Amino acid sequence: MKICAAQLNLKKCSSNESFYNYLNNEVFRNISNDTDLIVFPENINLSLLFVKRPKLSLSFKTIFETIFDKFISAINLSFLLKNEDLEYQKEIILNAFSKLAKKYNVNIITGSFYEKTKDGIYNIIYAIDRNGNIIDKAVKKDLVGFEKALKMKSKAENKVVNFDFAKVGLCICFDLNDKDYISKYDCEILVAPSNGYRPFPGYPFDYKKETPQIQRAQENNFCIIRPYCAGWLGPLYFQGHTMIVDKFGNVIGKAKSKDKTELVFVVI
Predict the structure, then answer these.
(1) How would you classify residue 88: left for phi > 0, otherwise alpha for psi between -120 and 50, otherwise beta?
(2) Predicted local distance difference test score (pLDDT) of residue 57
(3) Looking at residue 60, what is its pLDDT?
(4) Are 62 and 69 a contacting pair, CB within 8 Å?
(5) What integer pLDDT is reported at residue 61 of this predicted model?
(6) Backbone φ, ψ for residue 22 (5° rounding)
(7) What are the DSSP calls for 176-199, one per residue?
């Protein structure tokens, strides 16, 4: 099976068409026709900030990070999402990925985005098959301080999708840090879209402590795909550390750049 982890330098998009064209040009035109799965990074919704429907860190935590995380977790920033048309963002994202999956005959794990439900807002990813059909979705379990400040909800559910080539487990970013939670996945491949936000370029990266995918793969005997965002999106900077590890914890694919779009392919 041929897998692609899409590291993305996110671009501002303002419509269905511009988001579709961005994905098509940055990623899908550059894949081969034998690709089985493409996995996108966390918070792909940042490309769609302020879009309105048309009318008609170091993982071990520095002192600074620890204080900041506790501080921001205690703040109520939920008002920041009140002016975001989350339903329209969801519509744009799923519409684009569904069309591209069918056009290029490839299974997709979407980048994560914020979805509003009756009981709150969640950080969520979707699984889409080669025919463009949505077959399942999964919610992020372990939220960071900023997500807590936004008063987002979390859920532990260990979702696994039966694609036509393998059983794929769905989790998001920091969920990988929970050894017991990850051990409950019954799959051949686990995906963990991540965003890679950093305060500034060159921010320290602790390789041993910020690559839990290596240990989780060794413990559970499955491959792990972890794509990141990369580079600048307005004032936000993302440090791409996209990586794919095999079931023995060997790194079999990783991005060469930290701030550019890059497609990392492996054959498993």
Answers:
(1) alpha
(2) 45
(3) 43
(4) no
(5) 46
(6) -60, -50
(7) GG-HHHHTT---SEEE-----EES
Q: Closest Cα partner for 113 from 222, 181, 13? A: 13
CA distance 212 to 59: 10
DSSP letter (8 states) at residue 221? T
Query: Is the Cβ–Cβ distance between 223 and 259 less than 8 Å?
Result: no
Residue 46 carries which side chain, given as an amino acid letter?
L
Q: Which of 44, 37, 47, 50 is nearest to 196 (CA)?
A: 44
Taking residues 226-245, report their average pLDDT: 96
d(CA 33, CA 31): 7
Cβ–Cβ < 8 Å for 178, 142: yes
- Residue 87 corresponds to which tokens in the numbers above? 């339903």
What's the mean pLDDT in 244-261? 97
CATH code for the domain in which residue 131 is found: 3.60.110.10
H or E element: which one contains 101? Answer: helix 86-104
Query: Could you report how far apart the first and last alpha carbons of the chain are, in Å?
Result: 5
Domain boundaries, position 249: 2-267
3-state DSSP assignment of residue 151? coil
- What is the tally of structural domains in the chain? 1
For 167-226, how does the pLDDT look when each residue is reduced to its tens digit (9 = 90+)?
999 999 999 999 999 999 999 999 999 999 999 998 889 898 999 999 999 999 999 999
